[in-house]
Amino acid sequence: MSKFEIHDQHAEKIYQADIINVHEAQRVDHFGLGLKSLAAHDYASARRQLSAAAEADPGNHIVSYYLSLAQLDGRRPHMHSGATVEQIQRRLNTAVDRLPAAKALLILVAEDYQLAWRASEYIPAELIDLIRSVPVQQALEIVEHVPAEESRVWRLLSARIKGGD
């Protein structure tokens, strides 16, 4: 009888391991799929995937940054509703302390939404320093997905890409 009990316990462990493996195989990489969709300019799919990634990991500042890019839908911030811009700004505010690109995007969104670039060509030294701290790859992503060429932030990011610092 004890051999049977040991065999049953062993079979139960194998069964539980199989269930765990099946669940792991079914786990979807929403973040990776979201990045692929964003790169393909499929903003609707990117938003769905990155929203799922944000739901799974609400405090992830990198997911917040990319979801904000996707939510802009390849259009200038001033072409969005105030509610959409506020949602993007709230999300980016959670990431600005840890990700310079999120802070640059936040400033770009505010500047373009308010059309503030029309008021002044002056560029504060702090903004120049911030843009220098944005990795070139992320500067490229912002410039590619937020077509706000008149914006001071956008022009600095574009120069960052060309300079390749």
CATH architecture title? Alpha Horseshoe
- Tally of separate helices: 9
CATH domain class: Mainly Alpha
CATH fold description = Serine Threonine Protein Phosphatase 5, Tetratricopeptide repeat
Taken together, the total number of domains comes to 1
How far apart are the first and last residues' alpha carbons, in Å? 73 Å
Question: What would you call the structural class?
Answer: mainly alpha
Q: What is the string of SSEs from the N terminus onward?
A: HHHHHHHHH
Mean pLDDT: 86
Are there runs of 5+ residues with pLDDT below 50, and where? 21-25
How much β-strand is present in the residues? under 5%
- Biggest sheet architecture: none
Instruction: Provide the gyration radius in Å.
Output: 22 Å
Oligomer: single chain
Word description of this protein:
The structure is a single chain. This protein has 165 residues and is mainly alpha-helical. The protein has helices at 2-26, 30-39, 43-56, 61-71, 82-93, 100-113, 125-133, 136-145, 152-163. The chain has one domain: Serine Threonine Protein Phosphatase 5, Tetratricopeptide repeat. Helix 2 packs parallel to helix 4, helix 4 runs antiparallel to helix 5 and helix 8 (136-145) packs across helix 9. It is globular, with a radius of gyration of 22 Å. The protein starts with a helix and ends with a helix.
